[in-house]
Amino acid sequence: MRKHLYFICPTDHLEPLINNTFKQENYYCTSLGNSVKFDNDMARQINDLIETENIREITFVLSSDNRIVIDALGNQEFANLHGLDNFYYEIAKQKERLKLQWKSSDLRIPILSYYLNMKVKELQPKLSNRFAGQIKINAKIYKKPEDIFRDACLDFINRECFSLN
């Protein structure tokens, strides 16, 4: 049986949906808004879990109606919670950049895609070299109204601003 590690936000309550949708042995790592930081200790724990449980795929998942993301885009009532400062900063920065480029009134999906893909890129270099090429890492957004998991769009948001004089 395939074994899969999911990074999720506890406010989304996605465990039962993932278990019912993806029939495999699932493991979970939770953090508010998927704000997990891949410091040396966390990287060691993830690598140990991959090795001991023979995990072959890792997926970052957030719901399209994630409370933490909605708060970061709006009132920012949870901004002072421990560990969310960088998350709120990244969301606010991308919101401002997207407003200049995007004509949609709902920026959640492109921002979620950007953020989840950023987390994939953060994790990749933290995996042990012995897993190189063996572990698939991806990102999905759960679209609640449609009750489906969709792949996060790939890098269609510019991470850095450029200016020409």
Percent range for β-strand residues: 15-25%
Order of helices and strands: EHEHEHHHEE
Assign the structural class, choosing from mainly alpha, mainly beta, alpha/beta, alpha+beta, or little secondary structure. Answer: alpha/beta
| Low-pLDDT stretches | 156-165
What is the straight-line distance between the termini? 56 Å
- Report on the biggest sheet: 5 strands, mixed
Overall 3D form: globular
* Number of alpha- plus pi-helical segments: 5
In spatial order, strands of the major sheet run 2-1-3-4-5
Cα-based radius of gyration, to the nearest Å: 16 Å
What's the β-strand tally?
Answer: 5
Describe the structure.
The protein is of the alpha/beta class and 165 residues long. Helix content is 37%, strand content 19%. The chain has five helices and five strands. It has a five-stranded mixed β-sheet, sandwiched between helices. Helix 4 packs across helix 5 (108-123). The protein is globular and about 45 Å long. The model is unreliable at 156-165 (pLDDT under 50).
What is the compact description of this entry?
This protein has 5 helices and 5 strands, in the order βαβαβαααββ. With 165 residues, it is α/β, with parallel strands linked by helices.
